[in-house]
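Hi V.,

Quick status before I head out on leave. The structure for the redesign project is tokenized and pasted below; the design run finished overnight.
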């Protein structure tokens, strides 16, 4: 597929990127353009997510194609690119005898901050991620949830232009995952940091990201704004204050396929009619029944449905 620009400015762009490991094709011609904001990198295990991240970080060389990260080629300008990036790896293999403050300050100094500035930034950032009281504890004594926050802190402490998070909620329980996603969203918004989040949790990506790139078997299958990808067909979701069943019956009498989910929500299935005609029919029925209308919204698919459809299409098209 052609490259799809996901924002006003391309932070990461690739064209025909190929990476092989012996006879194994890890990336088979990746075309994409990742823009501003928070982008999710989705794919099952073996889809090529980790390989793509190592190329973006300049830790491996590609075999073919073009790749630009923040306007530079990470193959030839790896150190310069990494100075402008933050990275939180999936693994938790951090130095257990170091304190969180020392580790975050060390990473900040490696990115060019002076000693005093790095120490202050480490302290401020650890407070911001909820580890202010624990910042002088040895990392080896910390829980999985705290380790994830340490990794996030060291990735953002030096004010990078792009932060790459690899499975940032791995090992967390549902409440911890929700807290981590809220923290990531807040950091991205308040500090204007662009983020690329590699994950296999579709519902998490849908919650925190504005754009997504879907990988399957080393190829990009879908990419774009989540709001665009999840709009489905000409169907609509109608919210009223009462008597949804009466509205569904009235719409069915006009030839539309409609059902009431509860007393306030009616789903009108996609038809061959244009969306405007479906909406007009809903408004007429609401008026005839004397109902109070709350909203008429386009029908949306979940990101899981979009991902499943794109993976299925890729599989059927594969040789």
């Amino acid at each position: 597929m052609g490259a799809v620009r996901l924002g006003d400015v391309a932070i990461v762009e690739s064209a025909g990127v190929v990476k092989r490991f012996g006879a194994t094709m890890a990336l088979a011609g990746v075309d994409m353009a990742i823009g501003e904001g928070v982008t999710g990198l989705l794919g099952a295990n073996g889809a090529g997510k980790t390989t793509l991240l190592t190329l973006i970080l300049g830790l491996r060389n590609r075999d073919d194609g073009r790749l630009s990260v923040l306007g530079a080629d990470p193959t030839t300008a790896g150190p310069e690119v990494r100075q402008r990036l933050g990275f939180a790896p999936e693994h938790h293999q951090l130095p257990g005898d170091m304190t969180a403050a020392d580790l975050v300050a060390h990473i900040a100094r490696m990115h060019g901050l002076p000693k005093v500035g790095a120490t202050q930034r480490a302290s401020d950032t650890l407070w911001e991620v909820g580890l202010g009281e624990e910042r002088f504890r040895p990392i080896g004594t910390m829980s999985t949830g705290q380790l994830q926050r340490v990794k996030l802190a060291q990735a953002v402490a030096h004010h990078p232009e792009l932060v790459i998070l690899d499975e940032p909620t791995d090992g967390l329980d549902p409440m911890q995952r929700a807290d981590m996603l809220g923290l990531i969203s807040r950091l991205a918004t308040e500090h204007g940091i662009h983020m690329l989040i590699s994950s296999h949790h579709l519902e998490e990506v849908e919650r925190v990201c504005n754009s997504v790139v879907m990988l399957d078997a080393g190829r990009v299958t879908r990419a774009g704004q989540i709001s665009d990808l999840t709009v489905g067909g000409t169907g609509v979701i109608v919210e009223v204050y009462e008597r949804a069943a009466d509205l569904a019956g009235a719409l069915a009498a006009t030839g539309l396929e409609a059902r009431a989910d509860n007393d306030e929500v009616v789903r009108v299935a996609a038809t061959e009619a244009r969306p405007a005609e479906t909406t007009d029919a809903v408004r007429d029925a609401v008026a005839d029944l004397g109902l109070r209308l709350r909203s008429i919204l386009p029908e949306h698919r979940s990101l899981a449905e979009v991902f499943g459809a794109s993976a299925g299409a890729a599989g059927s098209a594969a040789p």
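Above is the designed sequence. The chain is about 40% helix and 25% strand.

G. will cover questions while I'm gone.

Best,
W.
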